[in-house]
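This section describes the prediction task in plain terms. A model, or a person checking by hand, is given the sequence of a single protein chain and must write out its three-dimensional structure as a string of tokens. No templates, partner chains or ligands are provided. The sample shown here is typical of the held-out split.
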Amino acid sequence: MGRAEHTNEELVSVLKAKGCALSARVEAALLLIPRGLFVPKDRHREAFRDQKLTVRMADGSIMTLPPPSFVVRVCVCVFVGFLGSCCQAPHT
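The expected answer:
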């Protein structure tokens, strides 16, 4: 990706630059929820990259956080509805 994002604002800017369709509600949610709270402190920078993040929990289990761009697609589906192509991954 070239550079690491370390704030919600920088992450939103990167997602917009990648062409993610951010409605006002989805953007507000991305700016409000501190993504870094969901990862160990030593992995904080990785939480703000648009890539999945796999974390080993204290009990030994594994948790994988989806990339923020995927979270955006899911939020659009929830806010807009499940009709149409809102839930389809972009074609690459």
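For orientation: The helical segments are 8-17, 24-32, 44-47, 68-80.
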